[in-house]
Write a structure and sequence with these properties.
By secondary structure, the protein is α/β, with parallel strands linked by helices. Among the domains are: 105 residues, 2-Layer Sandwich (Nucleotidyltransferase, domain 5); 106 residues, no CATH class. The chain is 61% helix and 10% strand. The chain is built from 13 helices and seven strands. The strands form two sheets. It has a five-stranded mixed beta sheet. A two-stranded antiparallel sheet has the order 6-7. Helix 2 links the parallel strand 4 and strand 5. Helix 5 crosses helix 8, helix 10 packs across helix 11 and helix 10 packs across helix 12. The chain is globular and about 65 Å long.
Length: 318
């Protein structure tokens, strides 16, 4: 008789100082410090187990080190949105929340849902990602300080705010130069950056954000990249009811820069302008037109990167 192979799934709860592991269906658990020694213990145990899938939650970047180490050892790792795990917990009636419970829940999630394991960012892409994230933080601080300046009554406060705004401007300029340098230093990134910035309406910030936050660009089909970014329309039907389609989820930071690029493209990109005018003539609401144009612009970018072809209006209008 042939031996029955039992698939094993692993959930790992990541915190700042510790790692909690649950191996399903054995109910084996591990609790180790989140350091080199702890990562080695987990890696060796999981290599022996050879699980079908390992699932971790995205925890603000804390998970990157462990996920990268496991992936480097040819283990299949999926990093999921914490909202997915909490929704799964509620659906299964699991309301308690501890590190050990969360690890077991992630193992059950891995078995039941089997989320797709996507390629992890390499060190260079993570560095670019961090720089893009820091730029966004500084921009947000500058907006706040500018708003405060508008209501500041005293001279000392005005001077303090102006000084801080000037400092923020300098830091943002430095990060912009650093981002540009990183992109131009890599032959692969430079080629992708040139392709993206050749599209009317796409500027440096859009290109940098997409390359840093969406490394899957050019690796997925148009439906997958739209869903990943959160610009794919979702149905809202039940029985005979046909509700309005809506977009939800995805990568909000990528969607934000894509929105700004699209607003420019609707004015200056012939392909997007023609597409938008056709939708408007058909009576589509303004928000529907914008989201559809965002999706079309993203599809164009995805195809150009995938095929390594420069911008041409005849291809974009196809």
């Amino acid at each position: 008789m042939s031996e029955i192979v039992v698939e094993k799934f692993v959930g790992i709860d990541v915190s700042r100082n510790t790692l909690d592991v649950c191996i399903d269906p054995d109910h084996e658990t591990l609790h180790v410090a989140y350091d080199d020694a702890g990562i080695e213990v987990i890696s060796q145990r999981l290599l022996a187990v050879a699980p079908t899938l390992i699932v971790l939650e995205a925890t603000g970047g804390l998970e990157v080190r462990l996920a990268s180490e496991l992936a480097a050892r040819k283990l299949t790792v999926a990093v999921i949105n914490p909202r997915q795990a909490r929704d799964f917990a509620k659906a299964t009636g699991q309301l308690a929340k501890t590190d050990q419970v969360d690890a077991a829940l992630l193992a059950r999630f891995a078995r039941a849902i089997r989320p797709q394991a996507r390629p992890l960012k390499d060190a260079a892409t993570r560095a670019l990602d961090e720089a893009v994230g820091r730029r966004r933080q500084l921009i947000a601080m500058r907006v706040q300080e500018t708003l405060r300046l508008g209501t500041a009554a005293s001279k000392p406060l005005q001077q303090s705010l102006k000084k801080h705004i000037a400092w923020l401007n300098k830091r943002i300029d430095e990060i912009d130069a650093d981002l540009s340098g990183q992109l131009r230093a890599s032959d692969v990134w430079r080629a992708k950056d040139d392709l993206l910035r050749g599209i009317p309406g796409v500027g440096a910030v859009t290109s940098q954000t997409l390359l840093a936050r969406c490394p899957e660009l050019g690796m997925l089909n148009r439906r997958e990249i739209a869903a990943l970014t959160g610009v794919a329309p979702l149905a809202n039907d039940s029985g005979k009811h046909r509700g309005k389609r809506f977009v939800w989820g995805g990568r909000a930071d990528v969607r934000a820069v894509l929105y700004m690029a699209t607003m420019t493209a609707i004015r200056f990109n012939p392909a997007i302008r023609i597409f938008a005018n056709r939708l408007k003539a058909a009576g589509k609401p303004a928000k529907v037109v914008i989201v559809a144009c965002m999706r079309k612009l993203l599809t164009i970018m995805n195809a150009m990167i995938k095929n390594n072809t420069p911008w041409e209006i005849k291809n974009a209008c196809a």
